[in-house]
Design a protein that fits this description.
Distance between the termini: 12 Å
Helix content: 40-55%
Length: about 90
Amino acid sequence: MKDETLKNISNPIREFLQEHYLFGYGEEEFSDDASLLEHGILDSLGILEIIAFIESEFDIKVPDEEILPENFDSVEGISRYIMKRLGGPGL
């Protein structure tokens, strides 16, 4: 159940990133645990854009103090953060 819920969260994130940031990458070329910051896919503005998307898509508010690399550096990290904010099972 946890894996399915995590996948349901990660799919729209991956689609957003693919549409807006992953130019030149095939869907299978970029893993969910790859660093978006280290690969230069997201910068500080990109982080703000993904946060705006997350807040709209998942109807959550991301407090400033939670805008940390471990929460927004990968599709997996973002998905786990959202799951935690939605009160999902502990990860």
